[in-house]
Design goal:
The strands form 9 sheets. This protein has a 6-stranded antiparallel β-sheet, covered by helices on one side. Strands 11, 12, 13, 14 and 15 form a 5-stranded antiparallel β-sheet that branches. The protein has 9 helices and 39 strands.
Length: about 600
């Protein structure tokens, strides 16, 4: 989007529950503002001009159209909500920090080589997702394709059709003349093929610096619209194979144009999902709040394990995008999950509201024996590891205890590791050859590390948080083990567990940090941190920079806490989240 500019006299200070901080631009539909939401995340709001007010019944139709457009995922900026401010409708969308294709071409000249192919593949994939949702963009053009650090994203889709519900037939909402299809100009029916025509015109502009029928050369665009209807496109400077693809898309008869899916096949290369974009459709099945997620593998198959207040744990085949087997039925809410390997089998370990721990064979969906007992309160966190060559689990309960479990023997291993201490989260780690458990607590905001071999603390607690430590994770950084913690003090902290000190300054959130996860993006260690503001932040540990934010729509969330896990899919790093719309979502973390 354009660089934020200062607000002007008369601009609103607030729109709905959003605080307005800057102007991003203005146009024929309205003014676009940069805003900060009620939970601290940034968003873009388009406040429509007064003549788009419409009737109350038309406004309801408008809101439904925006809600439908909000279902589109992937290479498109998400539409998050709509509302009314002083009689004027507004639309809330994901804020994309980047410049448009138009701005890039005007500054640096045409795209070329691999950049052009990536732009073609990404925008065609976005168009396919828009059309699969039953929408037509109606105004696809270089200014509506934004390019940021995570790749190209399409914006303003679905808005034209939504506007048609709140204006009378005299308003001209057909698009931008140089990128309109012939049927838009002649008044024919509008369908996905019109977007395909506009997509090709946009790619020709990106490749040459000029639209295929020339630029708009008068105020009304009459000359360029005449050429679109009656003349052939100028494609000589478009490199193959895009020249042939553009030619097929720019035929006058809409019935003869390829679909967006056809274009992806014609390009011959799948688009790499940009950093922070959703991969595939949401995975649904749970009927109540999803409270925990773990990543694992069953043979070579990547899986996600989830637990819910609906009394089930579910296993998801991430490659197939579907549930694997029937739900794992429990007698109460499943509050914590982890994956382990026992005798060559992938096993799901679940902790429940009814104070029990259970083991499940993931391949068969069968429970391995009866529930394991030992806690006298709900089991709120669980982690797995290997101790002296045998699989173990460590569990936390709201009975203020931490237990060690021998998973193969299906029994509690010794007395509690911790008694009478408010613990929120645990993680198992190999700290320079020592099998250890990291324990995050609440009563003194400290983090403790115990050697599981002798059950003793490895040193003094790690102190620095100023409020409850909600989540802990372990990983490596520059060849050394690290501990990652997130807390109610709105920080993520990175610790050297050997030297007992923070490695980098705290990574600061705008809300409480409810969950953290660690992973590798190629050779780069990254941290995922989930805030109470329903935003999952992606951090580069080498630089402490915020790489991306995964924003979940507030409308479909059943809890402020969004569980998150790190994983891999087809050799590429991913984030896995729950919470929104009772669904599991998989997000691209970019190229490794």
């Amino acid at each position: 989007m354009p660089e934020p500019r200062p607000l002007e006299p008369g601009d609103p200070a607030r729109i709905g529950g959003y605080r307005v901080t800057a102007r991003l631009g203005s146009g024929g539909q309205g003014v676009v503002y940069l805003c900060v939401g009620p939970h601290g995340g940034e968003a873009a709001i388009k406040l429509l001009h007064p003549w788009f007010s419409g009737t109350s019944s038309a406004r309801r139709l408008f809101d439904r159209e925006i809600e439908a457009a909000g279902l589109v995922r992937g290479f498109a900026a998400r539409l998050l909500a709509s509302g009314e401010h002083e009689g004027r409708p507004y639309i809330v969308s994901e804020y994309i920090a980047g410049e448009s294709v138009a701005e890039r071409v005007y500054r640096d000249g045409p795209y070329g080589g691999n950049d052009l192919l990536e732009l073609a593949a990404g925008t065609a994939t976005a168009l396919d997702a828009i059309h699969k949702a039953g929408l037509v963009h109606c105004d696809f053009k270089p200014a509506n394709v934004l390019v940021g650090p995570g790749g190209a994203r399409v914006v303003d889709f679905g808005i034209a059709r939504a506007l048609e519900t709140i204006v009378d037939g005299t308003q001209d909402l057909r698009g931008t003349p140089a990128y309109m299809a012939p049927e838009q100009i002649t008044g024919g029916p509008m369908g996905p093929s019109a977007d395909v025509f506009a997509w090709a015109s946009t790619l020709v502009f990106a490749a040459t610096g000029e639209p295929p029928f020339g630029a708009q050369d008068d105020n009304l665009g009459q000359a360029v619209m005449y050429r679109i209807v009656h003349e052939e496109p100028a494609l000589d400077d478009v490199p193959p194979p895009l020249r042939e693809i553009a030619s097929a898309c720019l035929v006058k008869n809409p019935d003869l144009r390829p679909t967006a899916r056809d274009i992806i096949s014609m390009i011959g290369r799948p688009a790499e999902a940009p950093l922070g974009s959703q991969i595939g459709d949401p995975l649904t099945g749970h009927t109540r709040t999803i409270v925990c997620i773990a990543y694992g593998r069953m043979a070579d198959r990547p899986i996600a394990l989830t637990g819910s207040h609906d009394g089930t744990a579910r296993v998801w085949d991430l490659a197939a995008g579907s549930q694997l087997g029937p739900p794992l039925q429990h007698r109460s809410a499943v509050l914590s999950v982890a994956c382990a390997r026992i005798d060559g089998r992938t096993v799901a370990v679940t902790g429940c509201q009814d104070r029990t721990v259970a083991l499940w064979d993931v391949a068969s969906g069968e429970r391995l024996g009866g529930p394991l007992t030992g806690h006298t309160g709900a089991v709120v966190s669980i982690a797995t590891g290997v101790l002296d060559g045998r699989p173990v689990a460590v569990s936390v309960s709201d009975d203020r205890s931490v237990l060690l479990w021998d998973l193969a023997g299906r029994r509690v291993d010794g007395p509690p590791l911790v008694r009478n201490n408010s613990v929120m989260s645990v993680a198992c780690a190999d700290l320079d050859g020592t099998t250890a458990v990291v324990i995050g607590g609440s009563y003194d905001q400290a983090v403790r590390i115990l050697d599981l071999t002798d059950r003793r603390a490895t040193g003094l607690p790690l102190t620095g948080h100023t409020n409850t430590v909600m989540s802990v994770a372990c990983g490596t950084m520059k060849g050394r083990p690290v501990v990652i913690t997130g807390g109610y003090d709105r920080t993520v902290r990175i610790w050297d567990p050997v030297d007992r000190k923070e490695i980098v300054p705290p990574l600061r959130h705008s809300s409480a940090v409810m969950a953290v996860a660690y992973g590798l993006r190629g050779d780069t260690p990254i941290v995922l941190s989930s805030g109470a503001n329903r935003v999952v932040s992606v951090w580069d540990l080498h630089t402490s920079e915020l790489m991306a934010e995964l924003r979940l729509s507030a409308a479909g969330l059943t809890s402020s806490a969004v569980p998150v896990a790190f994983g891999e899919l087809s050799g590429r790093p991913i984030a896995i989240t729950g919470g929104e719309g009772l669904a599991i979502r998989v997000w691209s973390l970019g190229e490794p």
